[in-house]
Amino acid sequence: MPHDLVAALRPLLTAEASAEAYASGAEPADLEQAVWLRLLERLDVHGPPHDPQDWLRRAVRTEARRRRRAVRHERPCAGDPVDPGDPRDRDPELLAVAAAGRRALRDAVRRLPGRCPRLLEALLAPHDPTYRDIAGELGISQGSLGPERSRCLGCLRRLLAPEVAPRRGRG
Predict the structure, then answer these.
(1) H/E element, 111
(2) pTM of this prediction?
(3) What is the pLDDT of residues 25-50, one digit of tens each?
């Protein structure tokens, strides 16, 4: 049954993910993989949906909304806030704070479940490996790295949330 269901839903999922991807800021393949994962989880717990096409459309939209919310809350760093730039200006206190931050991050990465520690360690490697290199090292498909990375970073955020001081509103 699951194989027939996958074969029947594949064209619809490809079309729906392509339609929703741009607005959500995600790659269509990432949305597809996330929905396949949700379907497998559902099959394991509740069995196949009564109306698979309707379920799939709703699942794609739900996943796209989830990605849009995540994108709204994620902001790129403008650099290392404790890196003074010029090596001659390095303050020992700032260097110690930066080293403590790197240690805390690596400790948190080691506490992650599954293959997340290996994946994030590979992504944090100083020689900046490509997705192809990382996929080969971990023995997983290159297309899985984006969604797997997103899940691992989500776990890392949840793990670090209690350790990071909450932002305070201004004035």
Answers:
(1) none
(2) 0.47
(3) 778 888 898 899 889 888 888 888 99
